[in-house]
UniProtKB/TrEMBL annotation:
Signal peptide span: none
Family annotation (InterPro entries): EGF (IPR000742), EGF-like_Ca-bd_dom (IPR001881), EGF-type_Asp/Asn_hydroxyl_site (IPR000152), EGF_Ca-bd_CS (IPR018097), Growth_fac_rcpt_cys_sf (IPR009030), NOTCH1_EGF-like (IPR049883), TB_dom (IPR017878), TB_dom_sf (IPR036773)
Keywords (A to Z) from UniProt: Disulfide bond, EGF-like domain, Extracellular matrix, Glycoprotein, Repeat, Secreted, Signal
PANTHER family for this protein: FIBRILLIN-3, VON WILLEBRAND FACTOR C AND EGF DOMAIN-CONTAINING PROTEIN
Pfam families in the record: EGF_CA, TB
Subcellular localization(s) per the UniProt record: Secreted, Extracellular space, Extracellular matrix
Any coiled-coil regions, as ranges: none
Organism, scientific name: Callorhinchus milii
Residues annotated as domain TB: 137-190
Gene3D superfamilies, per database record: Laminin (2.10.25.10), TGF-beta binding (TB) domain (3.90.290.10)
Molecular function, one GO term: calcium ion binding
Name of this chain's protein: Fibrillin-2-like
Length: 250
């Protein structure tokens, strides 16, 4: 009489499973630790996304699920902070916890966020979290010993970003010195770089700087300008100035 015994595949081949091999009658199965599930090959393990499979309880506490390797955690939405007991979220008063916001205005806390009530001459952005300087003043291309030189002005009233993001050296009745390109203050005032205002509008250099393209006409372009030169003159390699054409006669 022939008697068959179960073969323990897990003992015979320890590499059958990536994590744990469990012998069964006539076979075996691979199991994964908590937070992981088997891959399609039935041997390897992968992270289980509890958030996508809705295995979490975050929403019941007004929180958001964030998947982690092997587990998950409940976090608070933007603008809210975790309660001391960890069982939910409460509004974060950004006006207190984030000093320095709403420069040139007053910070007003709202549920989950905040808004800026701006000073006179300043306008709130579309999301109302920052004040844009819309004051009008003269732009100066020359500043000597912190004094703006009137002769170096186009006499057109422009905003500070129109001036300082376009090569100006000083702006306004108090001669506010423009930040130097490459500095943090310049990047904040001119986030898109030279040629564009704080809120992303193209700057008309011909209006702002004036006295451009001597011996020609200044033509504004997106982010810059070019010169249309008079007869007898030609534009230089950058097309931003006119130089005389020399004619050699024999």
């Amino acid at each position: 009489m022939m008697i068959c015994e179960d073969l323990n595949e897990c003992v015979q081949n320890p590499l059958l499973c990536a994590f744990r091999c469990v012998n069964t009658y006539g076979g075996y199965e691979c199991r994964c630790p908590g937070g992981y599930v088997l891959r399609e090959d039935g041997r390897m393990c992968r992270d289980q996304d509890e958030c996508e499979e809705q295995l979490d309880d975050c929403s019941s506490r007004g929180m958001v699920c964030k998947n982690l390797i092997g587990t998950f955690m409940c976090i608070c939405p933007t603008g809210l902070t975790r309660r001391p007991d960890g069982e939910g979220c409460r509004d974060e008063n950004e006006c207190r916890t984030k000093p320095g916001i709403c420069v040139d205005g007053r910070c007003v806390n709202t549920v989950g966020s905040y808004k800026c009530e701006c000073n006179e001459g300043f306008t709130a952005t579309s999301v109302q979290t920052e004040c844009v300087d819309n004051r009008q003043g003269l732009c100066f291309t020359e500043v000597l010993q912190a004094m703006c030189q009137m002769a170096a002005s186009s006499r057109n009233l422009v905003t500070k970003s129109e001036c300082c993001c376009d090569g100006g050296r000083g702006w306004g009745p108090q001669c506010e010195i423009c930040p130097l390109p490459g500095t943090g203050r310049f990047k904040k005032l001119c986030p898109l770089g030279p040629g564009y205002t704080t809120d992303g509008r193209d700057i008309d250099e011909c209006k702002v700087l004036g006295k451009l393209c001597q011996n020609g006409q200044c033509i504004n372009t997106v982010g810059s300008y070019r010169c249309l030169c008079k007869p007898g003159y030609t534009s230089d390699l950058t097309s931003t100035s006119c130089v005389g054409m020399y004619v050699i006669t024999l």
